[in-house]
Design a protein that fits this description.
CATH architecture: Orthogonal Bundle
Structural class: mainly alpha
Mean pLDDT: 84
Largest sheet: none
Oligomer: single chain
Number of domains: 1
Number of helices: 6
Strand content: under 5%
Organism: Trapa natans (Water chestnut)
Shape: globular
Number of strands: 0
CATH class: Mainly Alpha
Helix content: 55-70%
Protein name: Chlorophyll a-b binding protein, chloroplastic
Subcellular location: Plastid, Chloroplast thylakoid membrane
Binding site for chlorophyll b 1: 31, 111
Order of helices and strands: HHHHHH
Distance between the termini: 43 Å
Low-confidence stretches: none
Radius of gyration: 21 Å
Keywords: Chlorophyll, Chloroplast, Chromophore, Membrane, Photosynthesis, Photosystem I, Photosystem II, Plastid, Thylakoid, Transmembrane, Transmembrane helix
């Protein structure tokens, strides 16, 4: 397990099977958090600069999309993510089973990774950065560190949106324009 220093006051790592599940769950949550933080910051930057007319990230689900209605997008997402998550779960339960011939429309070689939870191959690792175990260990460590940081950042984004009712870039601009009077202390003291 990456960055295991033996600190486990709740005893979550005592059962090896549960620990294996927690490691995979942390990896998935870290990847979603990294994508979420990047997406929120990018769209908020486009919105604030006026490059695109976009809603604030927490109102994005309420807008009408040009390509399809919300129900259609939900069903497509459910099917695609459901398929991907089912494949991931099957690989978790039986490591290596999803690399067998015919398990993924003939693309098994293009997605072949070193271990469950870390798909690779030319499709997901086009630069070949994690082809050997040493490089893979380094990249796994970087991924989990950045993922943990992104999970904390997502918590901060959730809290700031709830308190200020604005996006992160808007809050940054407000703070930079008046750094002595637009801080978390003033914001929280005004909300009580």
């Amino acid at each position: 397990m990456e960055r295991d220093f033996g600190f486990d006051p709740l005893g979550l790592g005592e059962d090896p099977e549960s620990l294996r599940w927690y490691v995979q769950a942390e990896l998935v949550h870290a990847r979603f958090a990294m994508a979420g933080v990047a997406g929120i910051l990018f769209t908020d930057l486009l919105r604030v600069t006026g490059a695109r007319h976009l809603p604030v990230w927490y109102e994005a689900g309420a807008i009408k999309y040009e390509i399809a209605n919300t129900e259609t997008l939900f069903i497509v997402q459910l099917l695609l993510m459901g398929y991907a998550e089912t494949k991931r779960y099957m690989d978790y339960k039986s490591p290596g089973s999803q690399a067998e011939e015919g398990s993924f429309f003939g693309l098994e070689g293009a997605l072949e990774g070193l271990e469950p939870g870390y798909p690779g191959g030319p499709l997901l690792n086009p630069l070949g950065l994690a082809k050997d175990i040493k490089n893979a260990h380094d990249w796994k460590l970087k991924e989990i560190k950045n993922g943990r940081l992104a999970m904390v950042a997502m918590l901060g984004i959730f809290v700031q949106a709830n308190v200020t009712h604005a996006g992160p870039i808007s809050n940054l601009i407000d703070h930079l324009s008046d750094p002595w009077h637009t801080t978390i202390v003033q914001t929280l003291s005004n909300s009580f």
